[in-house]
């Protein structure tokens, strides 16, 4: 099983496959991107690449708040694109045995954006599926917004 990078949003623990995470950066205010899906709060320039910024609180249906200087941006890769995820803090690297990973459909069917759950000493870690992170409609709207951006 691959290692996972833990992160926290609104005191809730989540994780991503380490292979999908490129780097963590200090949070910066993104430039607005008109006509982008609601979960996209703007774009940033990462070493010459324009990267959409996803508000994890919006994606998770949690109460929104302004970006805090202590927040982090996780730069991640999906099959189609690079994204920056606004998180409250980056946690530890989690390694686990295969039997510690429970596919989401064995826990709750029809859960979007979550690949599974990992049991850790501190509790449960929801592992996100980045390739289903944007719905097809959101991905198309994002592509259109990026194409129209100056």
UniProtKB/TrEMBL annotation:
Top-rank taxon: Bacteria
Residue ranges of domain CheW-like in the record: 1-139
InterPro entries: CheW, CheW-like_dom_sf, CheW-lke_dom
GO cellular component: a single term: cytosol
GO biological process: chemotaxis; signal transduction
Protein name per the record: Purine-binding chemotaxis protein CheW
UniProt source species: Denitromonas iodatirespirans
